[in-house]
């Protein structure tokens, strides 16, 4: 047995600052009541510390921090403050009811910040931080201190700053790469030198807070861990100032996947990662990049025929993590022009269809022609192609026609015509505050599926006024999620088709399960 696997792993505490630093990303501001919802989810996720905001910034912010502190008694709450007495008073008051709390103080340590931002000498900075750490220590036992822009600071002065904070009672030293400037081979060893050169440096815990300006936030955080750091400050989806912060899900899954090599572990519950990511993205109106590691749309999806064939034989051929363990719906196969017969056969089997060899070749020919035209073959298009190849009806319901009346001073009105699999048609009308809402109300009358409309994603697949729009609709039925996708120049029509496709998925899955149960499988 590998010796490193027999040793106890060091626990890395996850300090989440989504609601403070993450919210500082331009356009990410959220309402106080939304902060509370996200904080509850962070607690379910298993973070060790939540930094819920900057109490001095507004009355609403103060009240949100206060409610989070009162409600979430099982997680430590960090009150964030500059080395300013009024900031400290606000942070202390807002977190007073927390079962576990700390005060997080910061002041700049780089010369460029001292010269142009603080306009103070090094001695003046030392005096301020000593006074404010001592002042904060009157109210709380746990003081976290951060020398801002540490990675661009003179190490000699950095040692003085950290030593002064420890002298006055700081218990956690957070060394941030505020500008995302450091390289891993520089950043990690800095923690070792701090412990060696700072009086009392071996008596405190160490943390790090890395920004992603050079795309190195996770790498720098892992380098810090290798040099003794026991806490990492992160944001869900990597949001935050400029290019963002160290991504919670990327750091956690790097540790989870390579924990034996790193010799560390966290207390995060991976099954809540995807749900947390989606909640933050929706609440802050921050879309997630398709190629974002862990939670991005393409992170566990494959179009290459070679990859798809390998995955169908053994998932580990092309995946190093299990997406379902993180709550990510299993949809690893994306059908496009690079897909092979095995992937197509697998997908239609999921809907309960099995084709003879001749029918399969007919479908494959139609599929390739359509893929050249449309790039991605969505499930509704695939089922249409199956129907054309076998001369059968493959979808329980299909959208025949859609009409929408919209305007700035009138209620949006829609009508849809839906064809049932027996060939009969029905037309339904409804209104809504928006055109899509009106259309969805129509479809709900036409398609008898008790499914909650959970999410809609709209993406432009090209540029210009003739661009195609891709709609991805997620519905929830009996605790399971179903997705439908459609592409069209009319985005309302694309969304309507995607919704019908998702509902068809619910019905076809129920039928497949029913057939399997009847057959005793």
TrEMBL record:
<keyword id="KW-0432">Leucine biosynthesis</keyword>
<dbReference type="InterPro" id="IPR002034">
    <property type="entry name" value="AIPM/Hcit_synth_CS"/>
</dbReference>
<dbReference type="InterPro" id="IPR050073">
    <property type="entry name" value="2-IPM_HCS-like"/>
</dbReference>
<keyword id="KW-0012">Acyltransferase</keyword>
<dbReference type="InterPro" id="IPR000891">
    <property type="entry name" value="PYR_CT"/>
</dbReference>
<keyword id="KW-0464">Manganese</keyword>
<dbReference type="InterPro" id="IPR036230">
    <property type="entry name" value="LeuA_allosteric_dom_sf"/>
</dbReference>
<dbReference type="Pfam" id="PF08502">
    <property type="entry name" value="LeuA_dimer"/>
</dbReference>
<dbReference type="Pfam" id="PF22617">
    <property type="entry name" value="HCS_D2"/>
</dbReference>
<keyword id="KW-0479">Metal-binding</keyword>
<comment type="similarity">
    <text>Belongs to the alpha-IPM synthase/homocitrate synthase family. LeuA type 1 subfamily.</text>
</comment>
<keyword id="KW-0028">Amino-acid biosynthesis</keyword>
<dbReference type="Pfam" id="PF00682">
    <property type="entry name" value="HMGL-like"/>
</dbReference>
<dbReference type="InterPro" id="IPR054691">
    <property type="entry name" value="LeuA/HCS_post-cat"/>
</dbReference>
<keyword id="KW-0808">Transferase</keyword>
<dbReference type="GO" id="GO:0003852">
    <property type="term" value="F:2-isopropylmalate synthase activity"/>
</dbReference>
<comment type="pathway">
    <text>Amino-acid biosynthesis; L-leucine biosynthesis; L-leucine from 3-methyl-2-oxobutanoate: step 1/4.</text>
</comment>
<protein>
    <recommendedName>
        <fullName>2-isopropylmalate synthase</fullName>
        <ecNumber>2.3.3.13</ecNumber>
    </recommendedName>
</protein>
<feature type="domain" description="Pyruvate carboxyltransferase">
    <location>
        <begin position="12"/>
        <end position="274"/>
    </location>
</feature>
<dbReference type="InterPro" id="IPR005671">
    <property type="entry name" value="LeuA_bact_synth"/>
</dbReference>
<dbReference type="InterPro" id="IPR013785">
    <property type="entry name" value="Aldolase_TIM"/>
</dbReference>
<dbReference type="GO" id="GO:0009098">
    <property type="term" value="P:L-leucine biosynthetic process"/>
</dbReference>
<keyword id="KW-0100">Branched-chain amino acid biosynthesis</keyword>
<dbReference type="InterPro" id="IPR013709">
    <property type="entry name" value="2-isopropylmalate_synth_dimer"/>
</dbReference>
<dbReference type="GO" id="GO:0046872">
    <property type="term" value="F:metal ion binding"/>
</dbReference>
């Amino acid at each position: 047995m590998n010796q490193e696997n027999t040793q106890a792993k060091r626990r890395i505490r996850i300090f989440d600052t989504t609601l403070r630093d993450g919210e500082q990303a331009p356009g990410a501001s959220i309402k106080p009541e939304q902060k509370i919802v996200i904080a509850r989810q962070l607690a379910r996720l298993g973070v060790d510390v939540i930094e819920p905001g900057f109490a001095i910034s507004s009355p609403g912010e103060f009240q949100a921090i206060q409610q989070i502190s009162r409600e979430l008694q099982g997680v430590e709450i960090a009150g964030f403050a500059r080395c300013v007495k009024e900031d400290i008073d606000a942070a202390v008051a807002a977190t007073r009811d927390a079962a576990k709390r700390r005060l997080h103080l910061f002041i700049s340590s780089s010369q460029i910040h001292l010269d142009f931002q603080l306009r103070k000498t090094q001695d003046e900075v030392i005096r301020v931080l000593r006074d404010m750490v001592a002042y904060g220590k009157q109210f709380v036992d746990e003081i976290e201190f951060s020398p801002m822009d540490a990675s661009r600071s003179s190490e000699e002065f950095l040692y003085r700053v950290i030593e002064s904070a420890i002298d006055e009672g700081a218990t956690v030293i957070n060394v941030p790469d505020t500008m995302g400037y450091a390289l891993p081979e520089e950043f990690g060893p800095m923690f070792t030198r701090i412990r060696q050169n700072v009086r009392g440096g071996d008596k405190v815990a160490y943390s790090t807070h890395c920004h992603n300006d050079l795309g190195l936030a996770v790498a720098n955080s892992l380098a810090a861990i290798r040099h003794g750091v026991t806490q990492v400050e992160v944001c869900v989806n990597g949001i935050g100032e400029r290019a963002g912060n160290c991504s919670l899900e990327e750091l956690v899954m790097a540790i989870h996947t390579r924990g034996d090599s790193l010799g560390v572990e966290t207390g995060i519950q991976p099954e809540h990662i995807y749900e947390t990511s989606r909640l933050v993205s929706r609440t802050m109106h921050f879309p997630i990049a398709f190629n974002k590691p862990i939670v991005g749309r393409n992170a566990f999806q494959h179009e290459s025929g070679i990859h798809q064939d390998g995955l169908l034989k053994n998932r580990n051929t092309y995946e190093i993590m299990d997406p379902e363990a993180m709550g990510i719906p299993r949809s690893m196969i994306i059908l496009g022009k690079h897909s092979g017969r095995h992937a197509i056969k697998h997908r239609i089997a999921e809907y309960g269809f099995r084709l003879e060899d001749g029918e399969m070749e007919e479908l494959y020919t139609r599929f390739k022609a359509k893929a050249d035209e449309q790039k991605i073959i969505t499930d509704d298009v695939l089922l249409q192609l199956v129907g054309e190849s076998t001369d059968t009806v493959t979808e329980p319901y299909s959208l025949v026609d859609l009409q929408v009346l919209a305007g700035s001073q009138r209620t949006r009105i829609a009508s849809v015509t839906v064809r049932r699999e027996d060939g009969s048609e029905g037309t339904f009308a409804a209104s809504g505050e928006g055109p899509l809402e009106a259309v969805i109300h129509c479809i709900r009358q036409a398609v008898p599926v008790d499914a909650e409309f959970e999410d809609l994603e709209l993406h432009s697949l090209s540029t210009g006024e003739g661009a195609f729009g891709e709609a991805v609709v997620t519905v929830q039925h009996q605790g399971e999620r179903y997705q439908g996708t459609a592409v069209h120049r009319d985005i309302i029509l694309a969304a309507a088709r995607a919704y019908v496709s998702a509902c068809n998925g619910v019905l076809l899955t129920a039928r497949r399960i029913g057939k399997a149960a009847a057959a005793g499988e």
